[in-house]
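Bug #77: duplicate submission created two jobs. Keeping one. Sequence:
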Amino acid sequence: MIEIAVCEDEQPIREYIKRLTEQFADVHVSTFGRGEDLLKEKTVFDIILLDISLDLNEKDAINGVEVAKMIREKSGAIIIFITALKEYVFEAFDVGAFHYLLKPIDEQKFEEVIGNAIGQIKKRQVAEPLVIKSNGGYIQIPVNNIIYAENEARKIVIYTKNMDDDSYSFYEKMEDLEHRLGDRFFRSHRGYLVNLAEVRRYDTTTIILKNGVSVYLAKQKYNDFVAAYMNYLRKV
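Kept job's structure:
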């Protein structure tokens, strides 16, 4: 699931942008009326749609460019500015904006820009290795090498296709790892996260992976798993 934030102080425009964004598959959209609220949010966003002139008439409010600068200090999210004021566009690109959209929004242009941004995020998810802290150091694991992850006490163990060292344990919440690995992985059970590319067969309670390992498939997740797996097969 790709996490998208919409930060716009005018509610009708905010809801309109949310509706347009939710037309894309595999996205979750959160909305914010103030930059301060976006900055306080703990969700790690992949794409942020940000109004440049946030609270322009409110004293001491943070405008969109300032919000973007703060986001850039801790995040590599794709930032897309939304503005009715063309004179702010060049300033927007100083913070590494992916694109900008002018109000009133051209829906065709909106779909093109958001579609390209989502494509960039999916490329990142495929190309970027998973970085974990294990045994006192940082390890980069190619995502394609991951077979599945399992909760073990307070740690997560990742099993890979590496011949020399096929498992790595580290501290992290499974929910956070699930977000980092993206929609090519499925949370089949609270204790398991599987690479859909490594599925050999399945039934209502079990997923058999290509390395012969069986992992639990929670009954209440069966339909969601089938939908996710069919969607993955269509893409490949």
